[in-house]
Amino acid sequence: MKRPCRRFADNVRSGTQRGFTLTEAVVVIAVTGVIAAMVAAFIRTPVQGYFDTMQRAQLSDLADTALRRLAVDLRRALPNSVRVTSLGGNVYLEFLLTKGTGRYRAAPDSDGGGEVLEFGHAATPYRFEVLGFMPTRPIVAGDAIVVHNLGPGSGASNAYLGSVGNLRRVSAVSGNNITLSPAVAFPRPSPDAHFHVVEDTVTYACIPDAVHPAAGEVRRYWGYAPTAVQPVSFPSVPNALLAQDVSACSFAYEPDAPATRGGVVSIGLTLTYTGGDSVRLVQQIHVGNAP
Length: 291
Hints:
This protein is α+β, with helices and mostly antiparallel strands. It has helices spanning about 5-15, 20-75, and strands at about 85, 90-105, 125-130, 145, 165-175, 175-180, 195-205, 215-220, 240-245, 245-255, 260-270, 280-290. The termini are far apart.
């Protein structure tokens, strides 16, 4: 009868089969650890750089999206309606958003007819005829008509004063005739018989937080009535979040910027990941102020 255990023991003694010693295992583990540490040192920097680049790209995209939306709205702002205020580190940019423009009838036609827009006094109903084509976007009841807006500080030629100023609500539209309410005449005519159609009041509110950037935000508010004093609180008003992680921001408005024949809104927006990178974008937006 063969004895495998005896043969195995003989093979071990003869050197035909053997295992690692404890010393050899320790050396292999140590060398492997050194190689792994060296590889990690070379790989860590490019990997971290990749994630930093992706993070900055994401921040830049968020900030750029918010600025683009603001720029699109500002290019539709009623002339001389942009105003900026700040409170406790928060900044608010407000303007009246238009949906179209047109020309009103300033004098009767050759037959003495036509609905002329009256100034100084107003008949009831107070209405006027639009000359030429109506604005591309239809004028509907609830929209507002503004004539020759000169903005805050210009007396009655200020749309933020509502019916006391130069803003009248559309109560009816029939063909090219627009009926306004209340039946109070506009304070002054436009030199080129021009009017603007306002559809909404809009505020961009920037609430930065340098200590906890994740709590900072830029938010758009709309759907509220214009007021003489610029609001900084918007309870129960439609709104939309445009950007988060806002650590700093600035809104500035120059109504009579040199060589622009209008105004310039300067915007700075800084987005920061908590404990991470920051991205700051700056943009200047031209707004036409010819009333």
